[in-house]
Amino acid sequence: MTAAMMSDAENRVVLNVGGIRHETYKATLKKIPATRLSRLTEALANYDPILNEYFFDRHPGVFAQILNYYRTGKLHYPTDVCGPLFEEELDFWGLDANQVRFTVFIIIIIIILFAQKAICQSKSEQFNSMSKTYQAHKALIVSDRPRN
Hints:
4-stranded mixed β-sheet, single chain, Potassium Channel Kv1.1, Chain A, 2 domains
């Protein structure tokens, strides 16, 4: 092995996330300071010296997006993951959810979901209003009945 190849191998790190192995450079993980990945050391309990890798029992699909964020500076929301899970993963890795870039597709879905929520709330308010009116009329009818 040449000196350049040895140096390259020493600068790489293997991250096993949910059974999927990801390989990157240590310098890549230092791009975003004060995060779990920027503070990796071989003294951590999740480092396996035999396999020369760190193991994290986390969502591997979300992690692929997170690692891509370290590489590109752009954090994209995966389309196959619910919001709370994605936010939980960001929190675990020490990243800010406000840095997420939404694709046009996701923005359209969010608009549709908000519209559906508004429609449901409107229908719920209409139902509650009708229910209160019904209860008031029922009370009047009951009070107007002759008593035995």
